[in-house]
Amino acid sequence: MGAWGAGCFENDDALDWLCDLEDSVSSDLIRETIQIAIDAPPGDDLEAPECCSALAACEMVAALSGKPPSDLPEDAKAWLEQNSAVADNAVLQLAMKAVERIRTDSELKDLWEDAESLDEWTPVVDDLASRLRVVCN
């Protein structure tokens, strides 16, 4: 994983995913990416690249719901301006489940823990979860 920060868009996998989203004219990729994280069997290692992409997709769900992160990349803002996608309650629920899975049971969490930097990453993921919770309630 090429990471330079704990933010959800501060790694190569998330930015590669964002490039794929830019080529898309619908929000289907967002849902599909989140679904990958949800569909991984419990106990199986949800691999870091999929986690990074899923967190980026969850950030887009939060942004579509009016709760973007403060560090939302310009490319993501441009996609939001060009697309009239709306995050319905079903995709919000999926995003919350994916964030929880990644936060508690994933290779990405383990990598941050092994690097003794979990205290940098956890608040970022917790912030995303709380922004998603606000729009679900």
Structure overview:
With 137 residues, the protein is an all-alpha fold. The protein has one domain (12-136). It has helices at residues 12-22, 28-39, 48-64, 74-82, 89-104, 107-114, 118-136. Helix 1 crosses helix 3, helix 2 (28-39) crosses helix 5 and helix 3 (48-64) runs antiparallel to helix 5 (89-104).
Q: What are the main properties of this structure?
A:
137 residues; mainly alpha
Write the layout of secondary structure elements.
Elements: H1 12-22, H2 28-39, H3 48-64, H4 74-82, H5 89-104, H6 107-114, H7 118-136
Helix pairs in contact: 1-3, 1-4, 2-3, 2-5, 3-5, 3-6, 3-7, 5-7, 6-7
Helix coverage percent: 55-70%
Kindly provide the radius of gyration, computed on alpha-carbon positions and rounded to a whole number of angstroms.
14 Å
Order of helices and strands: HHHHHHH
Number of helices: 7
The major sheet is characterized as: none
